[in-house]
Amino acid sequence: MHIDILTLFPEMFTGVLESSILKRAHTKGKFTYDLVDFRKYADNKHEKVDDYPYGGGAGMVLTAQPIFDAVAATKEKRKSKPRIVLLCPQGEPYSQKKAEEFAEEEHLIFICGHYEGYDERIREHLVTDEVSIGDYVLTSGELGAMVVTDSVVRLLPDVLGNEASAVEDSFSTGLLEHPQYTRPENFRGMKVPDILLSGHHANIEKWRSYQSLKRTYDRRRDLLDQIELSAEQKEILTKIKNEQN
């Protein structure tokens, strides 16, 4: 996979892309990236990329030309048909399902906004996807692009040390992940559940399934309306509800 990030602040990405899993994935050649300062594509001598909105209003709006030309240049360089992702508050709420979808692509382009917004022609005629990482407003789209990049790259083959890790994460199954414990067995009187020490893998999986459903029911019931539960899961969920009534 190759990722192009169109940004006015490429220096913001150094710490994220050069640390931890992302750095290892890049070093191992699992993905490549370019930070594209789209100010360099402005066709005016002052490299101006924003202007006042027609009709009046507060703030400045990113103009279409630099972003269109920057995208065209990256597509020509890669000779590809990428997914072009706009980070914006009006976009589709970002999800694990969307991350899995993006992880199947060979080339992604992220466009990081700034100022008051984008010229609407960018949204209508250039991008393939619009995503929002939450119902709040950030100063710019860089942080959103970092979040999406991290969530996608960790799903690429051989990026994580244990391939099961990504599969078992919260939201990957539609449910929140079950509780996890590690050594010591007894920490200041707080003990690991006996079932996890039993060595009985079938019973451990049943416990984890129960805990995952219970945690989702307790904390994010809305998620249960978005997935199709198996007959066994429905039975477990009924038991959980009865225990709490």
- CATH level 1 class label of the largest domain: Alpha Beta
Q: Which segments are poorly predicted (pLDDT under 50) over 5 or more consecutive residues?
A: none
State the end-to-end CA separation.
49 Å
CATH topology of the largest domain: Alpha/beta knot
CATH architecture of the largest domain: 3-Layer(aba) Sandwich
Largest sheet: 5 strands, parallel
* Secondary-structure-derived class: alpha/beta
| Mean pLDDT over the residues | 94
Name the shape in a single word: elongated
Explain this structure to me?
The chain is of the alpha/beta class and 245 residues long. The chain folds into two domains: 2-153, SPOUT methyltransferase, trefoil knot domain (Alpha/beta knot, 3-Layer(aba) Sandwich); 170-244, Trp Operon Repressor, Chain A (Orthogonal Bundle), CATH 1.10.1270.20. It is 38% helix and 18% strand. The protein has ten helices and ten strands. The protein has helices spanning 14-17, 20-27, 64-78, 96-102, 120-125, 142-153, 164-168, 201-219, 221-224, 231-244, and strands at residues 2-7, 32-37, 50-51, 61-62, 83-93, 107-112, 117-118, 129-132, 186-187, 190-191. The chain has a five-stranded parallel β-sheet, with helices on both faces. A three-stranded mixed β-sheet has the order 3-4-7. A two-stranded antiparallel ribbon has the order 9-10. Helix 4 (96-102) links the parallel strand 5 and strand 6 (107-112). The longest helix has 19 residues, at 201-219. It is elongated and about 70 Å long. The model has no long low-confidence stretch (mean pLDDT 94).
